[in-house]
Specification:
296 residues, alpha/beta, TIM Barrel, 49% helix, 12% strand
């Protein structure tokens, strides 16, 4: 089965409704929920009220808004108000820091709190425990190690962890047709491939017991138009089928457009991404793809 997935559900109600519209009107059939959002209870109610039953994942978040752990317990991750202030680069290098074990303990505490916060909603929906990360930060070595140790220590019944190692061959076979996309996405894709290989090397035995999926979405992030989605989908599905795996195709249709919501965003890079015009393009792609598939 192909999972057409949207991250960031539950951040704000109106933004989440835009994601739900892609469920009702498009091919969207999976969402990741923001466990530390104060709006998550209301947004999960919206799923029930609208009879929506997408696949659910916990969108582990170390960069936007506030921690769920007591802020005094995670000072390496947050500021004095409990707002996440740690950067991708700092967490990447933390593995080499003398405070490596302190970082890992604090990461484990926060990941534990976020999974626990989302668990009641998953149980109510009859959903299995699936995990991914906001901006894929869960793949950072210390974060991933903390997560895997937490899963083992608490015997968490994790069904799936997103491993964002995109198969470049699916893109390259289309040559120049894959353009345009944001050049920085090439860097992100390559970094995530390296981090994914490291995770598979270190935790391959444990991950082998979980569901395996081919993943696509970072290279075209913020530029995943209908034309690109339609172009690569047959090849991506064939690639996954040949390996006996499912396919997770990620887009970000949940734009944050309301000024009062934009003002509440705490991460500058996140604000730019969450308010991007590319999110409307990706929402339109999900809807147009369903219209086409229904006519086939």
């Amino acid at each position: 089965m192909t999972e057409f997935h949207a991250d960031d559900y539950g951040l704000f109600p109106t933004q989440s409704q835009r994601i739900l519209d892609c469920y009702h009107e498009g091919v969207l059939n999976g969402v990741s929920v923001m466990p530390n959002s104060p709006w998550l209870p209301r947004c999960m109610e919206m799923l029930e009220e609208q009879g929506a039953r997408p696949l659910l994942s916990v969108h582990l978040n170390l960069m936007e808004d506030r921690c769920l752990s007591p802020k005094e317990e995670v000072p390496l991750l947050v500021d004095g108000d409990g707002v996440f202030r740690v950067s991708f680069g700092r967490l990447l290098l933390a593995r080499l820091s003398p405070r490596r074990e302190a970082y890992k303990r604090q990461l484990k505490a926060e990941l534990r709190a976020q999974i626990a916060a989302a668990a009641p909603y998953l149980e109510r929906a009859g959903a299995e425990l699936r995990l991914d990360g906001h901006a894929h930060w869960h793949m950072l070595p210390l974060a991933f190690d903390a997560l895997m140790e937490l899963i083992a220590e608490e015997a968490l019944p994790v069904r799936y962890i997103r491993i964002p190692m995109e198969p470049l061959s699916v893109y390259l076979r289309h040559g120049l047709r894959i353009f345009p996309f944001h050049p920085i996405n090439v860097v992100k894709t390559l970094i995530l491939r390296l981090l994914s290989k490291r995770a598979l090397r270190r935790w391959g035995r444990e991950l082998a017991g979980m569901e395996q999926k081919v993943f696509l979405g970072v290279l075209f992030s913020d530029h995943f138009s209908y034309e690109k989605m339609r172009m690569i989908l047959p090849d991506a599905e064939a690639y996954a089928a040949a390996r006996g795996m499912g396919l997770e195709l990620l887009a970000h249709p949940g734009a944050v457009l309301e000024p009062e919501d934009i003002a509440k965003l705490t991460n500058r890079d996140d604000r730019r991404f969450l308010t991007s015009e590319g999110r409307r393009t990706e929402a339109e792609a999900f809807v147009r793809l369903r219209e086409e598939l229904e006519t086939v």
